Records
---
Amino acid sequence: MTDYATSVNLQDPLLERPSTEISYITAKSIPISTRYGYVLVTQQGKPDRTPIVTYHDVGYNSATQFHHFFAFNEMAAITDNFTIYHINAPGQEDRANPLPATSVYPSMEELAETVNDVFNHLEIKTAIGFGVGVGANILTRFALKYPSKMYGLILINGVSRGINYFEGFTLKWPTKDMPQTTWTDPLLTYLIWYHLGFETQTAHPDLVQSLRRHLEENVNAKNVIKLLNSFLKRTPIIMERPNEMNKNANPPITLTCTIMHITGFTSPHKDDVIDTNDKCDPTKSSYVEFSDCGGAVLDEQPAKTAEAIRLFLQGLGHISHMSIPKYSIANRVAEQAAENKRRNGSLGRISRRGSAPFDSVDSGLYRRDSQEDDNVGDDYYGHELQLRVDSFDDRNVKL
């Protein structure tokens, strides 16, 4: 076991309750010793409710990735009805002290084990996971190893493949474990692309400046590089889609919980998200793609993301008392689908690999995938979509 000296800042100003957000419940910090070092967990929401466990992406932490998102007005019903535990990877909290030079940073598999240690410490029996990027990869590994402890997964820009040769060669120099704690331009450039993508950098220069300022002022560069190196040395997540044609085949290694994959239309990780979705059980996996959005889903489309999460939680049987707003994404998609059906008859099938958002301004694309998609006709697919359209009238919506 590698024993890190704790670098937890229990008085993190980002965890203080904003006076203008009445529905937000103040977070409290919980330092936990795991077999691979100390981690800081922040608890948000009301206690003794259904737990949601989050895990952040590289270059972020629980405060900067999730705090403001869960304080968003559209997330009030979730904050009020769930207990949210935000896990920080070792050394990733704001203004963290440098991790010991002699320490070996945990691998992705070991970071997944720290999640299990957190569950045991907090006495969480089962939870809903919410991970972004690296955090999505870690929670996926955890859910595969401990399937009974995760019954729902929300994965933003989730990657399941290993590192390829070109990626590793390109990033070898920028991510070299430097003796100093300052950033290099190549590494900053890579992380900005990783989080935003090229299109978002052009369309939203304010996000670029905000991200650069955050990386330079709020996080320890050497600690971030350690986490990034673990991600770049990751092994592929071995899982496969169940064989629906051969029920007698050996049970595949796959996620058994309900999953929602989220990405943006121009996200640099979109193909990886589709690939990960392809490996999941189509009866339990949903794919959500937001148009007019790149890699920073929580920053670019927070309202749409909040609504997708609410619908997902309703599908799991939670917060069913909440009605869908009149001008919600779901109703806009439903209205557009119904109008297309009225004009054109049965709806044409949406290409699986092609991105076909309904509207580049204010719509999201919700759909499930199936191995049998390639064998069904337009009439069947149109009927399936119409059933989905009709389901939006029900408060307990299942994606």
Note: Residues 19-327 form a domain with the Rossmann fold fold (CATH 3.40.50.1820).
---
Amino acid sequence: MARVPHVVADTGAFLSAAPLQDIAEALYTVPEVLSEIRDRPARRRLAALPCELRVRRPRPELLRLVTEFSKKTGDYPSLSAADLQVLALTCQLQAEIDGPGCLRWEPQDKVRLSSTPRHPEAPLHLAGFHLPAKHKPAGKGPRQPGPGSASAPPEGDEFGSFLYWRPPLPSIEEELRELLAISGSPEPPEEPRSSADGASAGEEEEDEESDDEGWITPSNLKQAQQDTGHCDTAPIGVQVGCVTTDFAMQNVLLQMGLHVLAVNGMLIRRARSYILRCHGCFRTTSDMTKVFCPHCGNKTLKKVAVSVSDDGTLHMHFSRNPKVLNPRGLRYPLPAPQGGKHANNPHLVEDQRFPQQRLSRKARQKTNVFDPDYLAGASPFAENDVHSRAAHLHLRDAALGAGRRRLNPNAVTKKFVKRR
């Protein structure tokens, strides 16, 4: 397999024990990725890496542009500081080789989706299963109902039927017959079926189809590998790539026009954008930094995948899980709000006031003994407090002879002493 000249590795590439020496000619990473690798086996693999690992930092202006781009695509809340550094380094290497004009700094308005007869919420790419496209074998058309049979259901009941929401999976009976013919085993002759047991035979056939669907067989192994991304084809003409297992990073890389190299088959093939949809008032917003709905003010915003068709129609892909909102905290009443500087109150409204958690005057006046400008004793560069109430009342610190003399105000003192 041809190796890529320049490859940037993420933390997931080191943790998944990917053969990076077989993928890249020159391997790059950022210091934040190395600090994230903490377990002993990954550290040992990193120390014994059979290729040179170059540690570089991206330019600050590229890091700022990548951050703004990830906010536009909606993946910024899912990215860490190390992820943004890896994305910026990939952009920097691509710009050094092909020039800055090869990068896209604005996400595409329209996203092309392959037309499929499946329902949008039908499961796709299930782990361990392969669901090929349905092919109607010749001579197996729909059975014509007899004159005494019941009439077909009206079109209005199509969406309420079970078959619409759960389409039947294709059968692999023909593929098994081909395998039996190849192996040389004689195929048993088909016995003619009477018309009396036609309905029961059809029901048995449907049961066999539903039981045998979705399995990976030697005949559909290649197709399953292509659908799940386990392809043996090497990237041709790719100069810069990024090895990552993070779907948010893969989405940003694909929308920027960069190449993503998979290490375990998990690869995003279509660019998707995300918006926030309120499950209370059903309004949407593209500001991914929002926590509360800007229309109704409730904390009911959820991330929804959005795709745009060729004619500009917006399609939102919802989750099939009915428990979209977390009901945690709705069973028992909220505790009484706490006051003070270190209060830990739940965030209930967008304009709720929180303590600023500022350092105290004593904490700000502490000197660092490891500071090169540290001076023993009273430093002439210490901060002078001139804004607090104690400074306005000319109260000095207790260590200098003012204030209360008791070192521990909580100490128990005997007020009544028994006289002799």
Note: The beta strands are 4-9, 24-29, 53-55, 240-243, 259-261, 273-278, 284-285, 301-308, 314-317.
